[in-house]
Amino acid sequence: MRSTSEYLLPRTTGEARRLQIQSELLHEATESLLGALDVGAPQTCLDIGCGTGDVMLLMAQLFGDAPRIVGLDLDTRPARARFTEAAGATIDPARFELVERDLFGPTPLPGAPFDLVFSRYMLHHLSDPAAALARMWELTREGGTLAILDLDSRATTTYPVWEPYEQIERWVRDLYRKTGIDNHIGHKLPHLFDRAGIGRPDGTRVVGLVRTIPELAEFLPLLLDMIRGKLVEHAIATQPEIDRLEAGLATAPQMTATYCYRPAAVGVWKRKVSR
Question: Which residues make beta-bridge pairs with 224?
Fold first, then answer.
């Protein structure tokens, strides 16, 4: 069984910036999901695959001063940089703990089990998401809640159709299919909860997002940078084809009347009933 070590996107400055923009695009969906949970004032929260740390900051804003918030990731540098940036202005860094390790690590996770276990946009990278959910359920205390947010990109498109976006999405789809990444996992989450032995979710929340192409002008070239090496490696695109797409994406600021429907963000959650 592969583990969260599969989630090995490029650890570059450009990829860190792409993740930051992605986090901004997901803010509405994340806030909507966390706001829908009947968790009261949790004392301990865990963000699995914490990335830039933005969800941890949002938890602090939504749940007040009480919770101890732990972030788990294979690379905690983006979150550490984010907390350093925010320190003294909006947060007390002492409230947060970052743990650099794998979800399936053999040693106990400090502070487990947690009142709230959350994961965003990590599950679709894993070959056995049900096993990952079962592990997350183990980290959820009785009376606590497990909440997952992940993508479903089946409907993403532009109108009027802008071919550079459609092309990059086709390449992403083909690459993910070849490498076993499921970017349609969102609508499968309730079934995966059942498979993991968690049971039927208590609730679901689906949030869509529409942006103009110029609003994505910085994000899309960074997305291409993330996958360009893999596109050639897996014979999905040639370097000249990638260069042509890069030139097409550079025209994004001019496409002021073109809109993009981004992949839907699907949230599901389940409270762990005390025995």
Answer: none
